[in-house]
Design goal:
The chain is of the alpha/beta class. Helix content is 32%, strand content 16%.
Length: 185
Amino acid sequence: MQLDLLIFGGGAAGLWCLDRFRRAGYLAILLESTALGCGQTIQAQGIIHGGGKYALRGVRDFTAVQSTKAMPERWRRSLAGEIEPDLRAALVLSDRCHLWLPSGSMAARALSWGFMPLLAKGGLLSTPPQQLSNSMWPEALRGSALAVYALAEPVVATGSLLNALASPYRKSIFSYDVSDLRFAG
């Protein structure tokens, strides 16, 4: 058997690559040392980021912001089954995420100064954060923040997303022990 591609890491990116290469006709397999999604995928909490998190953290890497701004729309189309990979089996928890900004935080000051809407108008973000009135705050956040904003970035149940990406390729996904991995050559 001639292998075309070997993908290390079974997070959303690795599984997405596996899907893309397999559909393109390549013989590709994926190796995961721990469990699917155990790294960055689980740490992203299911939020399909569109650049806002980079801008909020004060990161001045506008290339990162610019390169991720189209991601929410791209994922929405996959989640609706309009484009590959077909992720209709993934559970969408919300069509937007909420940002909880405690009083005195740098992010709260940046947003109150209009920094994020300015980035959106400048084309860096696909959608500006929308400040919610207190009556629209999720119950869990009422009375605990200076402000709550909504970003049009979908939130998915991570396990269902991983399953939707992995299920067509179960026979192409293998676990390995890092301490036993050796390459000849």
